[in-house]
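This protein record is not my work; I was only asked to verify it. The record follows directly below this note.
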Amino acid sequence: MKALSKDFGMPAIIPLVTVLLFCLFGSAAAMDSSSATALPANAATTQTTADDSSNRLDQYAGFWLGLSIGNWTGLVTEMDKIGPATGRFYTREDWGKADLPSIWGQGVPSDLSATIDWVLRGPGQSWGSDDDSDIEYIYLQLMKISQSALLTAAEIRAGWLAHIYSDADTPHRNKEGQPENFLWVSNQQAFDLMQQGMLPPLTGQLPYNPHYDMIDAQLTTELFGVLAPGRPDIALLLADLPIRTVASNEAADIARFYVYVHAEVAGLPAHVRSNPAARRQALFDVAAKARQLLPANQYPARMYDFVYQQFAQGKPWEQVRDALYQRYQVKEQDGYQLRHRHLYCDGCFAAGINFAASLLSYFYGAGDMQQTLKIAVLAGWDSDNPAATWGGLYGVLLGDQAIRQLFAQPLSDRFDIHRTRKGFANNGQTSFTQMAAEMQQVAARIRRQFIEAPGTKSAGINQPD
C-alpha cells in the first residue's frame, strides 16, 4: 500500500523556498485561524485536579491495554470485507467462525487467528506495536522530553525521522519481500515529505499530500485526549498540529471528534465510570457534545446523524452497515465523493467510511466493551482502527484492572515498540505500567502549563466555571 503514496507524481524535492518560509512561520501556521475549532458551549465541564494517583495510572495503563486488544483482534478481519467484491459483509453470527482472506491476503486468512475471536497476549508474551499505537508512543516520548507539552513542527519532524524506518534502512520485509516500515497512505506520504525537509502542517495538506483525507490522523492522536482528562479544549490544542501533520479538512475534523471524546471520557468521575447504566448514558452524552464540533454541512456530521437516526429507530447494526456502503461508497451521498476518484479499494482506508463504521460500534455497543469491539471487528473496512480507538477509550473508561477482570485470564503488561519503530531505550521493551507513569508525568506538565499557570485564561484556555 505504501506505493499508493508514491504514485501521484510528487516532486522529488520540495521547493526550497517553501521549506524555508515554513521554517520561519511554521509555528504561527500551526495555530492559525483555519485550524480553530469552536467548542461546544458546555465543553469544559469536568475539573481536572490531582486525582487519586493510582486511579489515574489505572486509566492510563488501561488505555494502552484496551487499545492493544482492539488493535490485534481487529487485525484478524482488517480489509476482509469492503463491499460486494469481497462477498457479503460479516454479521454477528460470524464471531467465532473462520476468518476469510483480506483484499491483500492472497487467498490466505489471517495468520493471527484462524477464527474471528479475541487475540490476546498472556504472561511471557509482548503486545507488539502497530500503526494504531506507535506514532502515539512517539508523541508521548517527545512530550516527555520537550520543554513544552505543545509539540512544535520541528519536534514532530525530528521525532518521526529518529524513530521511523525508511525503506532504505528498515530490517523488515513484507510478504512480497519489499521493504516494510509500517506506514501507509497519508502517514507514509507525510514521512516522505519530512525526509525532503518539509514541516507540518504542510505534510498533511494538498497539493503535497493527496492522502490528506485518509484515516491516519485518527490512529495517531487519541492520546492527546487521554492526557487532558475533562478538558477537551486543552486536548484539541495539544492535538492540533499532530492531527494536521497527516490530515486536512473533514479527516482532521473526524480526528478532533475522537480526541474530544477521549478527553471527556477520561474526565468522567469514578462513580459514573463504574456504573453500567450511567456509563452508557455518559457515552451518548459525550458523543452528542462531540458532534457539535463537526460542521453541519459536511459529510462527517451527516454520517453521524444518519447512523444515530438508524440506531434510534432500532435497526440491526448489520442493516445500517449495509446502508452505509450503499449511501457513501456507491451513491456518494452527503458530499462524500471518493468513488469517482478511482482510489485503491474505493478508498477503504478513508477517514469518512471508517468514521461511519466506528459510530456503529460506538452506539450499538455503548457501555459494553466487548460488544463494542466485536461490532467494530465485524463491521468491515479498516476494522482494526475503530477497534483500537474504542479499545483505548474503554481502557480509559474502565481501567486496566477492570479490563483484566473482564477477559478473565492473565494478560501481559509488556509492550514492544521496536516491532515497528526504532531508537528507544531497552531495545524498545517497555510496559503499560511504565507508559502509564510517563503519561502521568506529561499530564502533570500539561496541568502546570495550561491550567495552573498564571494567565492561562487570558491565553485562550477555556477553564471550567
